[in-house]
Fold this sequence. Notes:
12 strands, Heat Shock Protein 90, alpha+beta, five-stranded antiparallel beta sheet, 10 helices, 3 domains
Amino acid sequence: MDTTPQTTPGPYDRPVKTELAMRAPKQRAKPLIRSAGIRFALLYAVVFGVSSFTLAFSLWFSTVGLLQRQVETAVLTDGMALTRDYTRNGMPGLLRELNDRLAENVDGDRIYLLLDGHGKILAGNLDRLPAGISAMESWFELPVRRQGVTSTALVRVYKLDPTMELLVGRDVRARTELRSVLSDGLLWAMGLMFGLGLGGAILIRSLFRRMMRDIAATTRAIARGDLTRRVPKTGDGDEFDELAGIINDMLDRITRLMDGVRQVSNAIAHDLRTPITRARTRLEDASLHAKTKDDLQFAIERATLDLDGIVGVFEALLRIAEIEAGSRRAAFANIDLSHVLQDLDELYHVVAEERGLKLETSIARFLPMLGDRDLIQQAVANLLDNALKFAPQGTTIAFTARLEGTAIEISVADRGPGIAAKDRVRATERFFRAESARHTSGSGLGLALVTAVAQLHNGTLQLEDNVPGLRAIIALPGRW
């Protein structure tokens, strides 16, 4: 028999929505106009349409305007010539000239009409004076009738004397038909331009969406933890490929930084565990087995030394982070690096002699640059410390500084075991130590700090084989 007490669900036993879920906004469809692809496509279509319409309209207007100007020039020339002929030769000469012009009118587009003061037709090829003429020597485009056929003409009336009027014009029916054809062509062209603009807009939108889709897919994969994904390139070498290259370079940099963070975390866990464990063991052993005050004091001092080493490692890490963040640029000043290096030479000459080594120095007299004196001094000191640490007794360490073009090159070369070619790529990583350096003191942060200082000054650190040994070269930009 089941003796489990039965309970009724209370108000707090009901499933409730979390506050975050209640506040989460509902996903709404994004308005079409807010799409960047649509905006770019519409902008292209508008620009293409306006430019195409402007070109087509200018061609139409210039063509029609040219025909208009040609007709007006011909009428003006005829009118002025006939007026001069009337002034020189009188009515008989004017009638003779009009008849000759009508006889020579092969195209049949010339229009003349000579009227006396009573409106009687004296000469010409019109059946009557067209209606609608309201002023002398003004342009009128109106229907005319000649030989029983109605047409359209551009005419101008001249007052020869108080009793004589001369109408001169041109039949513009062909020009009107041509203008109609041009207008229809313009409409068809506008339709074609609209279709081409729409097609181009759709094409641009598809290209834009394809590029954005590739970027979005890559960033979503990166957000899910797949740091190997990269934006694909088309291979055309266009702006999209350039953008993909920039994004891929950024992702490579992020990947390297993430790997560096993981490596630093692992290195801290491995390299600091030993001194911390050693300090704890000494203190625990002293607490259990120390018989005198001196024994206890000795154990505490040894543990303090181990802990000081750990504190030194963290200080070095913080200093590297500070340098990489660029906060030390505020201390930049114009300096002569020659004086800084000569001070280091004096100090390390003594140290080298004490260790049975020889330090050969060659420093240029003037090495101007913009930088942080203390950081550069510490970086070069790290290289000299490494050389003194690994160089065998009786060998020579070469310490040089010279100008190479506009760059300052500082070189420290020793005859020690060096660094294998496969390890030089990682030698500047934090806590990295090659096999040849496993049994020497150090934290593996020296070259990492040198690299950070060089990059802060827009310089580089290069490690080369000295056959045997290692040559470390810092290249910094000079300033004049």
